[in-house]
Specification:
- The chain is an alpha/beta fold.
- It contains 11 helices and 6 strands.
- The protein is globular.
- The protein starts with 9 loop residues before the first strand and ends in a 19-residue tail after the last helix.
């Protein structure tokens, strides 16, 4: 059984997204349930592995995957499950923490551009340049006059990448407050997960509505044909993985990639 359609999760450029209208528990694209969902993920994982191998060999395409979401939304889990089995030689993960003094000495996109994929590569951004219109906005780290201009900067930056051959997919992992509470509690209850628990996450949780407003602006102002956002219902981890894997596989299949032809005629080659 396969997922019916993932296009319903794409934030169209003309939409006016209200996250309250997007159900984090929605499973209309795959109503069969968790057991069948995990089975459906296996061939997608194998297909992604095969497509990434061709991409790395052909050296003609680049893929940038942006993963954003609130604390506990599942950014790490998404990367671990969706990209399991791929060749690490052609895949990189970039995380963007608090800027270093050197990074602060440049414009906010300077450090991001250095992490974008080269030919044949898949790069996953675990958080991204969008932090500069999310955290910066919610915590009032720079004046609104500055951060409000950044949507235009980001669109231009992503258009540059797309024009130069980068395929861009952006995923917002949409969970609700109750789901976040359960995941935070699970980290607190399990000593092996204490390293994941940060008391500061509770302060961020208190700003939930401010973050939702910031995310709505991101989705409405920066989802474009060349760099679309997908709003992924992420309360169910298995469905989150299934949707994202499907989007990536369908996108890579659309690139019509092929293994390169050998440089020499191999028909007469004999290995003694």
């Amino acid at each position: 059984m396969t997922i019916t359609s993932v296009d319903q999760y794409r934030a169209k450029p003309d939409d006016q997204i209200k996250l309250i209208e997007w159900d984090p528990n929605d499973k209309s694209a795959f109503p069969a349930g968790k057991s069948q969902g995990k089975k459906a993920l296996k061939p997608l994982t194998a297909r992604l592995e095969a497509l990434q191998e061709v991409m790395w060999a052909e050296q003609k395409h680049k893929l940038l995957v942006v993963v954003q979401g609130m604390d506990t939304a599942g950014k790490d889990g998404t990367i671990r499950h969706v990209f399991t089995g791929v060749n690490p030689q052609g895949v990189r993960v970039a995380s963007f923490k608090v800027p270093t003094p050197i990074e602060l000495g440049h414009d906010y996109l300077w450090r991001v551009h250095q992490k974008t994929p080269g030919l044949g590569e898949i790069v996953i951004f675990n958080r991204s340049h969008y932090e500069d219109v999310l955290v910066v906005r919610v915590h009032d780290l720079v004046p609104e006059e500055r951060w409000s201009k950044r949507y235009e900067h980001i669109n231009a930056f992503e258009k540059l990448l797309a024009d130069e051959g980068t395929t861009i997919l952006k995923f917002f992992l949409h969970i609700d407050l109750d789901e976040q509470k359960g995941r935070l509690q699970a980290r607190l209850d399990d000593p092996s997960k204490h390293w994941k628990f940060n008391v500061g996450d509770l302060k961020e949780r208190a700003l939930w509505q401010d973050y939702m407003a910031a995310y709505e602006d991101v989705l409405n102002k920066t989802s474009t044909d060349h760099a679309p956002w997908f709003i992924v219902p992420a309360n169910r981890k298995w469905l989150r993985n299934l949707i994202i894997s499907t989007v990536i596989v369908e996108t890579l299949e659309g690139l019509a990639m092929n293994f390169p032809e050998p440089q020499d005629d191999l028909d007469e080659v004999v290995i003694n």
